[in-house]
């Protein structure tokens, strides 16, 4: 229930074009923000007042899983790739040492 931590598994699943069902219980969910860019995902907020909408969204997501088998352009994941993360760490240490 944290709004500031993004599970690394989400990045792995998205980069492999895996469907992701994100079940959230907070309004400001960092996983939802990340998954807004990913078409094979659905976020269900358990605290939503309309329980019928929650069930309908879930059923729609599950029903479309087998019908969408195309590969997606995952360029939006570039900032999460190991090369970019490494560069960020290296620049931090380089800047600190100068």
Q: Secondary-structure map with pairings?
A:
Blueprint: H1 8-15, E1 20-24, H2 30-35, E2 41-45, H3 51-64, H4 82-97
Parallel strand pairs: 1-2
Question: What does this protein look like?
Answer:
By secondary structure, this protein is mainly α. The chain has 4 helices and 2 strands, in the order αβαβαα. The protein has helices at 8-15, 30-35, 51-64, 82-97, and strands at 20-24, 41-45. It has a two-stranded parallel sheet. The longest helix has 16 residues, at 82-97. The mean pLDDT is 84.
> What is the overall shape?
flat
Q: Secondary-structure element order, as H and E? A: HEHEHH
Radius of gyration using CA atoms only: 17 Å
Helix content: 40-55%
Query: Which strand order spans the largest sheet, edge to edge or round the barrel?
Result: 1-2
Structural class: mainly alpha
- What is the β-strand count? 2
Characterize the main sheet.
2 strands, parallel
């Amino acid at each position: 229930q944290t709004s500031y931590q993004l599970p690394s598994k989400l990045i792995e699943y998205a980069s492999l074009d895996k469907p992701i069902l994100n079940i959230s219980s907070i309004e400001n969910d960092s996983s939802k923000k990340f998954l807004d860019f990913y078409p094979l995902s659905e976020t269900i907020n358990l605290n939503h007042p309309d329980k019928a909408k929650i069930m309908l969204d879930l059923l729609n997501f599950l029903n479309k899983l087998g019908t969408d088998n195309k590969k997606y352009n995952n360029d939006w994941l570039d900032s999460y790739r190991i090369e970019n993360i490494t560069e960020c760490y290296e620049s931090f240490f380089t800047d600190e040492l100068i």
